[in-house]
Amino acid sequence: MKTKRKGSSFNSLNSKRELESVFLFTTGKCNAKCAMCFYANDMEKKADDLSFDEIRKLSESAGNFKRLWLSGGEPTLREDLPEIVEMFYKNNHITDLNFPTNGIKTERLIEWLTRLRKSCPECNISVSISLDGFGQTHDTQRGIPSFYRAAETLKKIDDNFKDDGHVLKNIATVITKYNVEEVVDFITWVYGRFNVSTHTIEAARGATREDGIKVLTEKSLVEIQDKIAPYYLLYAKRIGEGMNFIGRGMTKFFYVGLMRAMYTLRAKNLEKPCCWNMDCTAGETTLVIDYDGRFRACELRDPIGKVQDYDCNVQAIMSGDAMKKEIAAIGHGYTANCWCTHGCWMMSSITFNPGKMISMLIKANRETKQLSRLNPVQVDEAKLRELEAKYHLDIEKLGQIGLVEKTAGAA
Ligand code: SF4
Ligand code: SF4
After folding, report:
1. Whole-structure pTM over 0.85, yes or no?
2. What are the pLDDT digits (tens) for 50-59?
3. What are the backbone dihedrals phi and psi of residue 248, each rounded to the nearest 5 degrees, phi first?
4. Whose alpha carbon is nearest atom 5 of ligand 2?
């Protein structure tokens, strides 16, 4: 039986600023070597990961909050991750789990998702697999051969949780010099070959492992975003399948609006910090905890303390002087002095600025509709085959994974 997904916290307007999202870097270990990794320097420190007991104290002191964002390092390398998630479900009543992964540990991921669906039945789990481009492009950017593995993981998750509305499958692509020329084709191919709920693009951010890979300008990013805008209408339709008329309409309005609004803000901030026209609520509604216990208001600002110095008490951290000073340093509204391209914080902040949100979403929906009329997209088997040939994908491997008919190789 198909299980329906409950609304995400992104769909709820909330003007009361309280802790909503905890970003937990579960481990400093990783099995990839991504050129655009903004956490490589932190992982190089090779400090110890927070212990289970330290994380337990954090969970027990945090009170209820909605979203747990796993991060790292590679989250699947932390052996006790299912227990950690279950603890936050029990203690903090999280409703949304964001689970980014490079998709290399296929069997483990399926096993853990199966377990978490039983132990945390009301929690929406968004699995976000990194796929950066076609075949070799992905492997070059990720520093290890993992394209077909990650694709297989995604396919297996779809096969195992096809009818489970609580498991959302996403693909995340970071744009760098390696994939900038093919990213629009890649969006097309992903939409046609994978049954995912969304495919987000990110501009490489922070201090990357490899220098010189950030090649986007505001103009080139806007061009890419305009070309891919029609796909977000298609994704909204896909997410809304099975919902009633009102549900479909609301899903389309919020999904298309949020994606376009986020992309517009990101492009504006790519070359220089530029006011979001709303507060960034980092530090008020979000807490980032590094794998070794340092904490921050957001991923892009410096650590402002160590959770161990607060006896791992989240209430004490959020109300402490260090966080108060940090929130004051970030500032508010037009007088704020900290703006960036980070989509997660834009999305989160939009929901805490309901007055601004509605006008941004109306504008974003109008623009997306216009772009879809100007550039209607067509994704059919012939187009997909053409892309697979153009980017030299191994059809036999895609057939083994189940993404194409096995006979397609003969074409
Ligand atoms: S981006 Fe993620 S997967 Fe890649 S090296 Fe960094 S932590 Fe690992
Ligand atoms: S604008 Fe960006 S860098 Fe500044 S506090 Fe918000 S998320 Fe962090």
Report:
1. yes
2. 999 999 999 9
3. -65, -45
4. 282
